[in-house]
Write a structure and sequence with these properties.
Blueprint: H1 7-28, H2 34-43, E1 52-56, E2 61-65, H3 67-86, H4 88-98, H5 100-119, H6 129-148, H7 158-171, H8 175-184, H9 189-198, H10 200-209, H11 238-246, H12 281-285, H13 288-309, H14 311-318, H15 323-337, H16 340-351, H17 365-391, H18 399-424, H19 430-445, H20 448-456, H21 464-473, H22 479-510
Antiparallel strand pairs: 1-2
Membrane topology: Multi-pass membrane protein
Organism: Salvelinus namaycush
Keywords: Membrane, Transmembrane, Transmembrane helix
Length: 511
C-alpha cells in the first residue's frame, strides 16, 4: 500500500497522484520545448525584421543574415527561464503562507493569460512573446510546487513520487513538439494555444476537488483527507499540525519536529542542531549544505539553459542551414524529452533504496535519507559532465547521444533538487527554501545571454571555447555529493565512538 488508508480516502489519494502526473506531463514545463516552438515562430515570421540582407563574394551574392532574429529568440528564452526560477522565491512564500488553493489559482491565472497572449500574438506583435512565455513558465512552476507535496501521501515512496513529478515536468516540453507537428499538418499556432487555454478548466476542477486548501503534512496523520465534502475527517486542521512542528514537538522516527533532518554546519563544517526546535529559515540558508546545493544546481542548470536556448542556431550551424535536417534533429530532441518521466523515477528509487531496511544503531531516518541522497547527487553531476562533453562536439550525429544524456540529466537534476530540499531541511521551510535556491540559480542562469552574445560576436559563431569553459565549470557540482558523503561518514564515526565509549564505561562499572 503506497501509504494510503484504503477506501474512499485511498481512492482520492490515487486520483490526486494520477491527475497531478497528467498536469505536470501536459502543462507544467512546456516552455522548455522552446526549440520546437522557435521553428514554428520563425516560419510565421516572428522577429523577421531583425534579419538583414548582406552582399558577399565577388559576384555580389545576396545572403540573408538572421543572427539578429536568433538573438531575439535567445533573449526571450533567457528572460523566460530567469522568471521561471527567480519568481519561485516569492511563489514559495505564497505557498507556505496562503496554502495550495491560493497558489494554484494564481498559477492558473498566469498560465491562462500567457497562453492567450501567444494565441493572439503575431509577427507584428512579436514582443508579446516576452511576457507571454514568462507567464506560462511561472504558472507552470506553480503547478509543480503545489504537486510536489503529493509525495507526502505515499510514505516510503515519497522521493520516488517527487522525482516522478519533476520528470513529468521535463517531459512536458514535448508539448511544443506536438504543436509543431500539428502546425506542419495545418493547425494554426493560435488554435493550439487556445486549446491550452481552455484546459485551464481542468486545473480549476482539480484545485477544488483533488487538492487541499492548505498543505499536505508529512508525516501524514491517520485519516487525513481534503477536497470538497471530504467527510468527517475534514475537521483536521493542517495549520495546527504545522504549528506543532514549529514548536518542536518530537515523535519517533520522522516526527513533526524534524530536528534530525537539519544539516546545519558552522564555519568549520561541524554539524549543529538545536534539539527540540525546528531550525530557523535563516540558519538553513546559512548552512554549508544549502550553499553547495546552490552551486550544484546553478552550474548544471546554466549548462542546460544555454544548450536549450541555442539549440536551433547550433543545429543550423552543424547542418549548414539545411532546414529539413534541422527539423529532423529538432523533432528528435523534442521526442527524447518524453522520456524524462521514465528517467526521473530511477533517481527516486536510488534515494528511496534504503527504505524498509533496518537502520544502523543510533541512526535516524533522516540521516539515512541524507546518506542515500549522496549517490543520486554524484550520478547527476557525472551525467552533466558527460552531457557537456558531447554537446561540445562539432559532430552532428553525436547530438543524438547528447539529447539522450540531456533528458536523463535534466530529469535527475530537478527531481533530485526537490527531493534533497525536502530531505535535508525542515518541511515547514520547504516552499521558501525551494524558491530561494531556484531564484538564486536563476541569477546565475542570466549568464547564458552574455555567453550567446560572445559566441555570436567575438567567437564568430563558434561556441567551442564557451562549451569547454562550461564543461570545466560543471566539475564544481561534484563538491556537493562529496561533502554530504563525508558528513554522513563523520556522523557514523561519531556514533561508533559514542557506542565504544559507552561500552567501556559499562565494563568499568561492572568491575
Amino acid at each position: 500500500m503506497l501509504g494510503c488508508e484504503g477506501g474512499g480516502v485511498g481512492l482520492r489519494y490515487r486520483l490526486t497522484l494520477a491527475t497531478g502526473l497528467v498536469e505536470c506531463l501536459c502543462f507544467a514545463g512546456v516552455v522548455f520545448g522552446w526549440a520546437s516552438l522557435v521553428f514554428v515562430l520563425k516560419t510565421d515570421g516572428y522577429f523577421a525584421d531583425f534579419c538583414v540582407n548582406l552582399t558577399t563574394g565577388p559576384n555580389s551574392t545576396v545572403e540573408t543574415d538572421c543572427s539578429g532574429q536568433d538573438e531575439q529568440f535567445s533573449l526571450v528564452f533567457t528572460v523566460t527561464s530567469f522568471m521561471n526560477n527567480f519568481l519561485t522565491l516569492p511563489n514559495g512564500f505564497i505557498f507556505d503562507r496562503f496554502g495550495t488553493m491560493a497558489t494554484r489559482l494564481l498559477g492558473i491565472c498566469l498560465y491562462t493569460t500567457g497562453t492567450l497572449m501567444v494565441a493572439f500574438s503575431s509577427s507584428a506583435l512579436s514582443m508579446l512573446l516576452f511576457p507571454a512565455l514568462s507567464f506560462i513558465a511561472v504558472g507552470g512552476i506553480l503547478f509543480l510546487i503545489t504537486n510536489i507535496q503529493v509525495g507526502n501521501l505515499f510514505g516510503s515512496h515519497r522521493s520516488t513520487i517527487i522525482t516522478l513529478y519533476n520528470g513529468a515536468f521535463d517531459s512536458s516540453s514535448a508539448v511544443f513538439l506536438i504543436i509543431k507537428v500539428m502546425y506542419e499538418g495545418g493547425v494554426s499556432l493560435r488554435s493550439s494555444f487556445l486549446i491550452l487555454s481552455v484546459c485551464s478548466v481542468i486545473h480549476l476542477l482539480r484545485t477544488f476537488f483533488l487538492m487541499p486548501n492548505t498543505h499536505i503534512p508529512y508525516p501524514l496523520p491517520e485519516g487525513f483527507t481534503y477536497g470538497v465534502n471530504p467527510g468527517k475527517s475534514n475537521s483536521y486542521n493542517v495549520e495546527e499540525f504545522e504549528k506543532t512542528r514549529e514548536t518542536g514537538m518530537t515523535s519517533e522516527g520522522e516526527g513533526p519536529a524534524e530536528t534530525d533532518d537539519m544539516p546545519l554546519q558552522s564555519d568549520d563544517g561541524q554539524h549543529s542542531e538545536d534539539s527540540g526546535k525546528v531550525a530557523s529559515f535563516r540558519s538553513c540558508v546559512q548552512s554549508w549544505f544549502f550553499l553547495w546545493h546552490l552551486v550544484w544546481l546553478s552550474v548544471m542548470q546554466l549548462r542546460h539553459y544555454l544548450f536549450i536556448g541555442t539549440l536551433n542556431p547550433m543545429l543550423n550551424r552543424l547542418a549548414d542551414n539545411d532546414s529539413a535536417l534541422v527539423s529532423q534533429y529538432t523533432n528528435a530532441f523534442a521526442f527524447t524529452q518524453l522520456f524524462g518521466v521514465l528517467c526521473a523515477p530511477w533517481n527516486g528509487l536510488i534515494m528511496d533504496r534504503h527504505k524498509g531496511k533496518p537502520l544502523a544503531p543510533g541512526e535516524t531516518d533522516k540521516e539515512a535519507d541524507l546518506r542515500s541522497s549522496s549517490l543520486s547527487l554524484f550520478l547527476t553531476s557525472l551525467q552533466c559532465l558527460l552531457f557537456s562533453i558531447c554537446a561540445s562536439s562539432p559532430l552532428l550525429p553525436l547530438q543524438y547521444l547528447t539529447f539522450i544524456l540531456q533528458v536523463l540529466n535534466r530529469s535527475f537534476l530537478y527531481g533530485g533538487n526537490a527531493a534533497f530540499v525536502s530531505i535535508a531541511f525542515p518541511g515547514v521551510h520547504f516552499g521558501k527554501l525551494y524558491g530561494l535556491v531556484m531564484s538564486l540559480s536563476a541569477v546565475v542562469s542570466l549568464l547564458q545571454y552574455p555567453c550567446f552574445a560572445l559566441v555570436k560576436g567575438a567567437l564568430g559563431g563558434d561556441p567551442f571555447y564557451v562549451n569547454i569553459a562550461l564543461t570545466l565549470l560543471t566539475l564544481l557540482a561534484f563538491i556537493h555529493p562529496i561533502n554530504i558523503f563525508y558528513h554522513c561518514r563523520k556522523l557514523t564515526n561519531q556514533r561508533e565512538d559514542m557506542a565504544g565509549g559507552a561500552a567501556i564505561t559499562l565494563a568499568e562499572a561492572k568491575m
